[in-house]
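Q: How would the structure tokens look for this protein?
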Amino acid sequence: MAARFFKTSIVFTGLLLAGFVFANVHSAMAAAIPVAKNARLGGGAENTRLVVELDKPVSFNVFTLANPNRIIIDLPEINFQLPPGAGIRGRGLVRAFRYGLFSAGKSRMVIDAAGPVQVAKSFILPAGGGKPVRLVLDLVRTSQKAFEEHTAIVAARRKAARLQAKRALTALRGSSVPLPRVKPMRTIAGLGQNKGKPVIVIDPGHGGVDPGASGKRGSREKHLVLAYAKTLGAQLKSTGRYKVHLTRSSDVFIRLRDRVRIATSKNADLFISIHADSIRKGNIRGATIYTLSEKSSDKEAAALAAKENRADIIAGVDLEDAPDELAGIFIDLAQREAKNESIKFAKTAVGFMQRKVLLNRNPHRYAGFRVLKSPNFPSVLIELGYLSSRKDEAMLNSPRWRSKSASAVVQSVNRYFSKRLANR
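A: Here is the predicted structure in token form.
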């Protein structure tokens, strides 16, 4: 008995020590991430300075992108603790700026220029005289021609560096980089031929440096849709019927094409992208479900798709040399079938959601969203509501509403896969 107690005590003590070590390592890692506590703009229409206050020096890289004119500051991962509303209002040569996690271990600031600019200086000022470490960016006005020429030269250098890195990686692997493959039609979810648990991929829109829409009470779309996606994912998992994956589970930016690639890599049977819209008319409310069509169902749907398809630009991604991974690999029949299955799920979802949540006056619409263009699986985009409506914003912030709304989507998924699940 004493020996058993002694062994148990050792195990318990070991667990406590392990927990203590883990907690301290975690704290040390968190402390190692630089913190940005303030960012301010100064100057006027000819010379504008951006100052970012940090708790320690960091390495950084600055470059420009055209169409629209932007200045990009790439940084190591930063814990941004800037005051609420930082970057929304510009000054001088800066219209606005955004910030956030761009990819694992990498943060980014994207500055929207009010016109063509040149980065005259960029440097780190060490702490001293009661002031913290500061990252300083000095901008001066230039001509559009000079801005575009400089941007093109830098872009060509970056492209060459990326190509060289790809070639080196390919040589190490001993083979060429494989092209994306289209699933055989028989594995598309609606046909009921795919064995095992259906795979559901939930895509919380925006994230990191791309905040998405903003509400009148300060809510950010990227946070609301992530909270909803986690609620929906948990409810789907709790049924025991599905394998569930999220394209992002934290506040990080993911390119539009990478969202589709993630779903393809997981062998998705259904792709659900989650968003929350904002529109000038503050009296418009309710959820809307979108499916793919190159010809939009109405002007509002076309405008929304155009806005959402600019997510990569908002995050400072240079699209000029970004290959369209779908180009040349569409199979017409598979694409048509994926669209038909998407419409089938959307109609099912409208039927269940209208019993539990407020829907838009025209709840099923069509538009050319880039994230819905895969021929591999059915895809829908759910706009949960309008952040331009105070009532919708409050609703989207409610855990109770999220749970009720998500349960309706779960019922829709159950009905959509009912034949397949019955034949397992």
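Residues 1-18, 25-29, 179-193, 321-331 have pLDDT under 50 and may be disordered.

The radius of gyration is 24 Å.

Upvote if useful.
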